[in-house]
Give the backbone structure.
Amino acid sequence: QKEVEQDPGPLSVPEGAIVSLNCTYSNSAFQYFMWYRQYSRKGPELLMYTYSSGNKEDGRFTAQVDKSSKYISLFIRDSQPSDSATYLCAMSALVTNFGNEKLTFGTGTRLTIIP
Amino acid sequence: EAGVTQFPSHSVIEKGQTVTLRCDPISGHDNLYWYRRVMGKEIKFLLHFVKESKQDESGMPNNRFLAERTGGTYSTLKVQPAELEDSGVYFCASSLTGLGNYGYTFGSGTRLTVV
């Protein structure tokens, strides 16, 4: 069983819709949760970073973490065609003086926003 | 600020040959990571440098892979001899050290094809 499960999609929604992306995980040691956005032929770009359970909002993006259910979500409001990309969840168990330890990624969900 | 630079962007080699990938991190970033994504799979951790020292190399698949970071600046990842299953996209990422520095900045990756 993979440590992080993510529905690969593809997911297509009309412009302006609310998008919900989700990951589940099995390793209870994970405490740091990230969402990355990856455009074609580019590297992943950090979108949101949260620690432990709770919500975090940044503009049109909201990240939620429910550690009791081992479930994380990313919501995109008022979706735009420029949001079309692959969205990756990633998790880490530790942050040391050196920074984040290794990340464990989901497979990514390919999202298309239809104008 | 220049981002994380990787080259070559693409490499096609024959099985049994040697390939060297290079990563230039963001200036001042002591943490340098290598990750890999093989076809249809999630991005997986390979190793983590802090300056010139290997902090964690638990993700290196076998001894055909050799990573170095001379002088704590750029890093190289050598595959020798390359096998078909080594095909994939190799990402480098860097970050600052210290608590409070979260997430990484990724390069665009090197797409390696072994034929």
